[in-house]
Amino acid sequence: xxxxxxxxxxxxxxxxxxxxxxxxxxxxxxxxxxxxxxxxxxxxxxxxxxxxxxxxxxxxxxxxxxxxxxxxxxxxxxxxxxxxxxxxxxxxxxxxxxxxxxxxxxxxxxxxxxxxxxxxxxxxxxxxxxxxxxxxxxxxxxxxxxxxxxxxxxxxxxxxxxxxxxxxxxxxxxxxxxxxxxxxxxxxxxxxxxxxxxxxxxxxxxxxxxxxxxxxxxxxxxxxxxxxxxxxxxxxxxxxxxxxxxxxxxxxxxxxxxxxxxxxxxxxxxxxxxxxxxxxxxxxxxxxxxxxxxxxxxxxxxxxxxxxxxxxxxxxxxxxxxxxxxxxxxxxxxxxxxxxxxxxxxxxxxxxxxxxxxxxxxxxxxxxxxxxxxxxxxxxxxxxxxxxxxxxxxxxxxxxxxxxxxxxxxxxxxxxxxxxxxxxxxxxxxxxxxxxxxxxxx
Length: 442
Prior knowledge:
Elements: E1 2-3, E2 15-16, E3 18-21, E4 24-31, E5 40-45, E6 58-62, H1 69-77, E7 81-84, H2 86-89, E8 93-94, E9 97-101, E10 106-108, H3 110-114, E11 130-131, E12 137-144, H4 147-156, E13 161-165, H5 179-193, E14 198-201, H6 237-251, E15 257-264, H7 267-280, E16 287-291, H8 294-298, H9 300-306, E17 309-313, H10 314-322, H11 340-353, E18 360-363, H12 372-378, E19 383-386, H13 391-399, H14 403-415, H15 419-426
């Protein structure tokens, strides 16, 4: 972009970008993480996002990787955010005042953008599923990282806590967390979320989620290397994982808890960890398997028979399907969530699961993207764990959705020739979703 401190915004042209975090934010455009202020709309490159220290009013992420861990933390933080291409960023002038609409994905002249914004929907009633137009119940659960997220889940109308990212619960001093630490952390989270049921995903160290106490080991935390449950035989990860289980066992009499094993590849692998978990717990808890690779999803029927429930981690699944590291912005455009192959694969899994599909929860960014939730409902999925902030918007979509129509949409997307054809079917703008070309005026 061109530096032009103090320029007026009368010539500012509204830009259609990619919506990421809903919300309205107004402020002065500032370029670079170091220049972020509480009253700025801050334009940052994907690699800069992790270095943000101030919390800006809104974020314009340029050429970012939407499925990356650092971007997902923005969802958790609730900062209104758009994703722009470099050519779009070049149209913005530093110092201009602008308005960002994180629902429609628009940034531009405040008066022009504000005239088209819509009021946020009322959240559904917490603790219960949402009902579609034709009476089908769909569970919108919350993915959270701590007590703050639990409070937001409750106020946003979550039916349950579908996923606690326990890897973000760490002692502030960076020391190795023990049973006492986790008992205190899990108890506070559960009390904040009460009366919602809570599913805790056991430690899932990976990529940008490396805890301070984990040493640097070859092959650890690479995109397809040692992560999640693949580290449970290695110290100090094993001790931390066992401390989490013991803490959950202590709290189980007081709270409705479940346990989720991350990054499972085969059913036999899950059965081994299930035996370990049940051997530590003083009394049984529901134990689920998280399928995040194509191999695991293709074993969905077997996993659902072996586990009390299954969670499909769509972020890592798409990473594996497209062989593109989800934390690497250079290949972000390859991970196309509108590619028909994604939904053909999920249709195959849903059909294989059959009557077990009701015990399968979809997690990750996929259900939260524009136009995608009806496809997934049309394929037969009925439980989703999403960012709490998005639950009211997703609930509104479901409340106006007819599942027979959703099934036709799903079949149309599965039959589409390519991602552009799928986007046209969904009424979305053409072009690669994560690497927009020439921007369109609004």
